[in-house]
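COMPLEX REQUEST
Ligand: manganese (II) ion
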Amino acid sequence: MSDFFPSEIQKIKQILIPTKKIVITSHHNPDGDAIGSVLGLHFILKKMGLNAQMILPNEVPSFLNWLPEADKIVKYSKQKVEAKRLLAEADIIFSLDYNGSARLEKLSDDFDKAKGTKILIDHHPNPDNVFAHYISDTNVSSTAELVFEFALALKGHELISPDAAICIYTGIMTDTGSFNYGCSNPRTFEVVAQLVKMGIDIEVAQQNVYNTFSEERMRLLGYALAQKMKVFPKQRAAFISLTKNELEQFDYKIGDTEGLVNYPLSIENIVFSALFIENTNQVKVSLRSRGSFPVNLISERYFNGGGHKNAAGGKSPTTLTETENAFIKIIEEYSEQLNN
Ligand code: 5GP
Ligand code: MN
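STATUS: Structure written out below.
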């Protein structure tokens, strides 16, 4: 028997049968790991003769739209009635790459009400206790890596089709910043080696995800770094903030600010970076760090959010300026820890 969550796998195997209605969900503003995991699991279940519907709270960003069958994902923001019906009727609901229903935003009430058996596959700390089964491990690179292990434990490599393989690879690649962070466990590279053996084209994934900027997105990046980045060398911190108006000037599309928060960490000595994006009623907050500074705790405490030690997100109900000022206070308060 595999040592990958043996008792959970045993129980999940018994309920995964063709008569069951299965739904796969992931979080609001889905990233590469969310979408790669959802599509990957969908292809794995397909190989088992199971048909699963995929639901997300909102849109798939264009740099992930090329993934096979991404167009089959039901988006609550566009197909409300369909998404609600699928969740209500589901016998089994997979929750991938998020640790609680708050991350589903507008879909969270329907998820909370849904009667189906809820199965978590995720790598965030402290999951809600609403799930019937937990495949939860904070020591893996990505949820996509867990989806790979899940397929091996359910049956074996034969469940991983070339389509599943490229989706899983994209999840691992994006959540590790192309094997830059979060992949200190050698197992991640063993999983990737197996995906490469299955014939995935790494260059295609890299090209489609990272080299498909619109001209406006590239100019927004330049503008944000040149004009909007504030650096606080004493606190070893930096932030970038963008107003709604600025985003409109650069013809903002969902996903256009992805990765932007990482840039200040390339400045020597900067270990804490934040990105503030002005939305209609709130400010979206993204936090990143290098080393031991736990941005998930900062996000939980000040920005109603959470995430991982080095990558977290949340929101601020105040104005952009007030959010910036709160951040400046925070880095002053944590100055000593930031300099450790
Ligand atoms: P990002 O900054 O890319 O939106 O998110 C970084 C990390 O923080 C991701 O792992 C994501 O799951 C988590 N995260 C982002 N926004 C939120 C939020 O509002 N609440 C919680 N709990 N986690 C978040
Ligand atoms: Mn993830």
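REMARKS: The chain has two domains: 6-210, 215-338. Residues 32-47 form the longest helix (16 residues).
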